[in-house]
């Protein structure tokens, strides 16, 4: 089967540090190649892959502010669809814009919906629903206004994450610095619990960071480590007492949550979006609704089996399972 994978071009595939969509596309590309598929990855020119790399955009626009994102998005998407006849499947991981090309080609288009940025993009998904095959990344992220061919949970490369049986002595916040992610709440939870907090992630909202986060950073009890790449991620996750994920939006999936559990580190998350699907309540972490509940659950974290956290991920969120699910979906479409 000949598959075209359309990756975002905000970051390299795989990303150097941040880039969850690009991470998933990379894992999928490598897994499909391993299964004997003929894969062409459409991504930035500096991307790394064992698939055939095809590109028009030389580098990520987030890493070169001289680039106009809309211009390169236009060129990138058109570059693939102008070659649509070469492929059995086009797998779109670039949100809604490529949908507007789908009626112009005969090749089936699978679109993984990595989450809805806002309700205003829904008309595009609705308009092209009958011409596309939509995949959701969690059942909670499904829209009642759309039809889907499958739900396929993200998978991770378990070889990149090592289990620590021993609970660490710090709390960890790992994600974008943004109101949606509840960075301020994580700080308040750590302060009231009396445990050091390490924070890692890109600053996506500068005003929020300056007003709600920076005033608490003291380099001792509240530490901001910046954006941590793959080398430091495993060490931070496995060394933590618990991961704090006090989100204020309906999280479509939550890669950092799965990565944390893969290291044996339980997660305390606000019960929004996919968290009830991703976390094994009472075994790999706890679902809470506010700071007070988070504080109560943190007290019993040492009673959880960190090995069980790892086993939960191995059973449900491996890259091999994800790749197999996508191959089954492709076969269902082309048969």
Describe the structure.
This protein is α/β, with parallel strands linked by helices. It has two domains: 2-155 and 318-334, Glycogen Phosphorylase B (Rossmann fold, 3-Layer(aba) Sandwich), CATH 3.40.50.2000; 158-316, Glycogen Phosphorylase B (Rossmann fold), CATH 3.40.50.2000. It is 33% helix and 16% strand. It contains eleven helices and 13 strands. The radius of gyration is 20 Å and the shape is globular. The protein starts with a strand and ends with a helix.
Secondary-structure topology with pairs:
Layout: E1 2-6, H1 20-34, E2 38-42, E3 52-54, H2 69-81, E4 89-92, E5 109-113, H3 122-127, E6 133-136, E7 150-151, E8 170-174, H4 183-193, E9 196-200, H5 206-213, E10 222-224, H6 230-238, E11 242-245, H7 255-262, E12 267-270, H8 275-278, E13 285-288, H9 291-298, H10 306-316, H11 319-334
Parallel strand pairs: 1-2, 1-4, 2-3, 4-5, 5-6, 6-7, 8-9, 8-11, 9-10, 11-12, 12-13
């Amino acid at each position: 089967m000949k598959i075209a994978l359309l990756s975002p071009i905000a970051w390299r595939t795989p990303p150097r540090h941040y880039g969850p969509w690009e991470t998933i596309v990379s894992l999928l590309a490598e897994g499909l190649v391993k299964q004997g598929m003929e894969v062409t990855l459409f991504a930035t020119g500096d991307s790394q892959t064992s698939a055939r790399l095809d590109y028009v955009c030389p580098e990520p626009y987030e890493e070169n502010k001289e680039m106009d994102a809309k211009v390169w998005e236009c060129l990138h998407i058109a570059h693939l669809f102008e070659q649509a006849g070469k492929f059995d499947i086009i797998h779109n991981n670039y949100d809604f814009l490529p949908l507007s090309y789908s009626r112009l080609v005969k090749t089936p288009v699978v679109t993984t919906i990595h989450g809805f940025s806002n309700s205003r993009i829904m008309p595009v998904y609705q308009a092209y629903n009958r011409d596309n095959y939509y995949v959701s990344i969690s059942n909670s992220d499904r829209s009642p206004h759309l039809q889907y061919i499958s739900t396929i949970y993200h998978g991770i490369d378990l070889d990149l994450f090592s289990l620590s049986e021993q609970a660490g002595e710090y709390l960890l916040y790992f994600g974008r610095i943004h109101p949606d992610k509840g960075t301020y709440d994580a700080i308040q939870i750590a302060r009231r619990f009396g445990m050091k907090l390490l924070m890692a992630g890109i600053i996506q909202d500068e005003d929020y960071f300056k007003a709600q986060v920076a005033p608490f950073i003291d380099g001792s009890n509240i530490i901001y480590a910046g954006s941590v790449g793959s080398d430091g991620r495993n060490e931070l996750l496995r060394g933590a007492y618990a991961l704090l994920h006090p989100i204020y939006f309906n999280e479509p999936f939550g890669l950092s949550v799965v990565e944390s559990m893969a290291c044996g580190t339980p997660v305390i998350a606000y019960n929004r979006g996919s968290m009830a699907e991703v976390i094994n309540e009472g075994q790999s972490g706890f679902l809470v609704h506010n700071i007070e509940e988070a504080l109560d659950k943190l007290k019993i974290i040492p009673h959880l089996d960190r090995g069980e956290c790892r086993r939960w991920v191995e059973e449900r969120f491996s890259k091999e399972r994800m790749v197999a699910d996508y191959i089954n979906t492709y076969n269902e479409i082309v048969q």
